[in-house]
Write a structure and sequence with these properties.
Strand order of the largest sheet: 1-2-3-4-5-7-6
Largest sheet: 7 strands, mixed
Number of helices: 9
Distance between the termini: 30 Å
CATH architecture: 3-Layer(aba) Sandwich
Number of strands: 7
InterPro entries: Acyl_CoA_acyltransferase, Glycosyl_Hydrolase_84, GNAT_dom
Organism: Homoserinibacter gongjuensis
CATH superfamily: Gcn5-related N-acetyltransferase (GNAT)
Order of helices and strands: EHHHEEHHHHEHEHEE
Domain N-acetyltransferase: 65-201
Protein name: N-acetyltransferase domain-containing protein
Helix content: 40-55%
Mean pLDDT: 96
Shape: globular
CATH class: Alpha Beta
Strand content: 15-25%
Pfam families: Acetyltransf_1 (PF00583)
Length: 201
Amino acid sequence: MVGIRPFRPGDEEALYEVCLRTGDDGQDATALYDDPRLLGGVFVGPYLRFSPELAWVYADEADVARAYVLGVADTRAFESVLDESWWPELRARHPLDALPANPHDREVVELIHAPERRPDELVAAYPAHLHIDLAPEVQGGGRGGAMLRTLLDALAAAGAPGVHLGVARRNERAIGFYEHLGFAPSEAGSTRDELVMVRTL
């Protein structure tokens, strides 16, 4: 079936690939990483395991997932679960005393050992967060907007009053996409390179 459907077991490898193919601020990061599963281990895998009810994919004619939208309704609770049940396994697999020579791989391994934490004032008002990525061949045509609205409706139904996300400041196309869907920039959590955007639900 072509179109948006809920995530289901068996989609994982395809979604890790989508993450890698969009992992350079929306561009293909395949050539940048020696370990092709590193990015997915941070930005896809934990959502599929611990928040699968808030995961949707866009599938092609062969029912292969070519895009995803992933979310959690409670960021702080999700962080606690990952601290206990996700990061320890990845840290054992990628120890700090054996950091990769590749700077891109090394940056992700360091993130695994020191995961990002959004500031309290941001999470208090916008406790949910999300990630969305579409492979180049399925970008356009309103697919991303439809996927994002599907998740936003589900987050609202779950009782989340607001949602936040992070986007590279240089990714002007993505920023415009989010603004079109009602997101606004937030000073809380934003850095020189990353813009945090928020939306009430």
